[in-house]
Amino acid sequence: MLNEIMEIPSKAKHFLDNSPGYQLPLQVPYLGMGSSYFAALAFYYMGIPIQPGIASEYFNYISPGKISKEAVLISQSGRSSETVWCSSLFENFTAITNDAASILATHSAAKQSILLDAGLENYSSSKTYINTLLALFKGFNADSSDALEILNGNMGVYETNGRSMADEVYNLYAERKSCSLYITGNGPNIATAKQAALILSESTKLNFHGLPMAQYDHGPKETAQNSVVIQIISRGPSLRRSKQLSASIKNAGAYVIEVEEQAVDENFSVLHNSVPFNFMAYYLSQKLGVKELFSVGNKVTEVE
Question: How many CB atoms lie within 10 A of CB 101?
Answer without folding.
Answer: 8
